[in-house]
Amino acid sequence: MTNSDLIQIILMGLLVIVTGIYAWRTFTISKASKKQADASVKMAEEMREQRRPIVVQKVVPAKSVPYKLAAEDITKSISSDYFEIHNEGYGPAIELEILLLDKEKRQLGKQRETFFPKVSESPLEFHPNGLTNHVNSTCYLLCRYRGVISSDEAQQWYETWLPFVPVKSQRGDRIIIQPKELKFSETHKKESY
């Protein structure tokens, strides 16, 4: 073995060591970059959730609720003939659709709002019509909307469902609303009603 062969072997060994160090550094840097990218994505998702609108339907208490009713009985006897729609989130709702559906989820009424501001603004009123044919059966008030900050290319829709039962008042002169439990959902598919 000559001196030039020995120098080539030493240089080859140094090249292998330098390549190994470079590969190790690249691996650790890319691992740290991935962690940082994941943290950025998580932070963006949390910010989007904080700016999310939350549209809630409420039944307005009827004027016929007795004045000295116990607190636990008020929720049992709440009834009215219209709804108030509130945005209790921290961002505006856009493309808000308020749909009145019968028990088979066929559309009975509809109202649209292009822009519905956040909680500090006044509520929308929704007066349902055509409930006389649906007395004592479950109906639904569906609010479907999007947030200003979208999470991805597929448009995410938020939905709040308020099932309720229309009943005749004690005097029989009007239809009043008895609400059930409000439900929230998210979807990428906008159903037709």
Description:
This protein has 2 helices and 9 strands, in the order H-E-H-E-E-E-E-E-E-E-E. Strand 3 and strand 4 form a beta hairpin. The strands form 2 sheets. Strands 3, 4, 6, 7, 8 and 9 form a 6-stranded antiparallel beta sheet that branches. A 3-stranded antiparallel beta sheet has the order 1-2-5, with no helix packed on it. It has helices at 3-50, 71-77, and strands spanning 55-59, 83-87, 93-101, 107-116, 124-126, 139-147, 157-168, 175-179, 183-187. The protein folds into 2 domains: 1-50; 53-187, Immunoglobulin-like (Sandwich), CATH 2.60.40. The protein is rod-shaped. The longest helix has 48 residues, at 3-50. It has 193 residues and is an alpha+beta fold. The protein starts with a helix and ends in a 6-residue tail after the last strand.
The CATH class designation of the largest domain is: Mainly Beta
CATH architecture term of the largest domain:
Sandwich
- Strands, count: 9
Question: What is the CA–CA distance across the termini?
Answer: 87 Å
Number of domains: 2
Query: Which of globular, elongated, flat, extended, rod-shaped describes the shape?
Result: rod-shaped
Keywords:
Immunoglobulin-like, 2 helices, 3-stranded antiparallel sheet, 6-stranded antiparallel sheet, single chain, alpha+beta, 193 residues, 2 domains
Task: Describe, in short, the structure shown.
By secondary structure, the chain is an alpha+beta fold. It has two helices and nine strands; from the N terminus they run αβαββββββββ. The termini are far apart.
